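WARN no homologs supplied; continuing
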Amino acid sequence: MHGVIPYPQYKKLMKIRRTAYMIVIICGLLMIFCPPLVAHADLFGFYVPDVYEEITENVDETNDILGQAFKFSQTSPYDVVNSIRPSSSTGILAIRIREASKTLALVTATLLLMVDFFRKSINFEWSSKWENVLIFLIKILVIKQVVQNADTIVGYVYSMFDSVNKVATNSTLNYLPNGNAYNYTAVIDQGLIKQLSKGWWDFWYDVGAGNTTDTYTYHISQDAVKMFYPNATFPSATSFNDMDSFNGAFPSPTEKINFFPTWEMAKLQPLFLIMKAIAYIIFVIVIGRVFELAVYTLLAPLPLATFASDTTHEVAKNFLKNYIAVVIQISVIVLMFVVYVGTNKYVIDLFATNGSAKLLNFIVLCALGLGVMRSGTWAKKVCGIA
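OK structure emitted
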């Protein structure tokens, strides 16, 4: 019968499976019950510097994503919308959309003014005073200028409140600590046997080119490592002549009874993913903010036209408040990161010898992500519209 494994083959597969299970169990028990490892690699060939370099790479990558996000947050909505040029016709598409919204806004303002005038003219006392009629005529001229120059008005509002963002985002704040970074190198002689094993052609080529040594470089940030291992120590020298002395210069963190590099890197991977996920969430929020500003910029004449009527002018006021809230949202995000860096440092300093320090760092990081997702609501609260 097709699809049925003969019993001898099935028995052989089961034996291989049991052997694999036993190897995994033995490796796990060795990792748990072996004495502390300091200068030697674990069962998978990783050393303490490999863990530190992995931490540094992930922290640097997270900071790079955050840096790009905040750089993009400084993009003016006018630069975005004015870059849209359709290939089928001449001119800038955003300008044509804005002009069309101005035309629609003028029609809307005219209708609102007519309704407002008819409503007030019923009152004989109001219409009998020439001052009221003069004020109404001036109001018509003002509304026309507001609608026709809506993009300029919104542009000034954006520039005024965006100056706060530029002060915050142009600072040298490191969102995740990655200072005190050094390149640690270990230069190792390849040896004659290793060179000859490459083949005669490669051997003579390497000898002629002087390639008789291997250089291993580790880029490690001490501040980034101490975020995860507060008691980690580092050598004063940055160059070593052999791998044993290099790895021996990086002792296991004192808060770890048994330090297995492979197991430590596996445990840190979920936290690395969360760090980068939060950074990408921030990037998405910043992109959404630029989209929202672009829409507000293009359609600004429509809500501003509601100033024409006493019964609808609240729409224009709420529009300006929402627009300002979106502009200062990036300031709220920056302040969250300032608080996060301070809180993270406080946790590290306060719980340096406590095993719960890493868990508290994880909680603070999750709180940062939740705060950034609510940054829009908090910005609206600052403007009094939430």
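The longest helix spans residues 261-298.
OK
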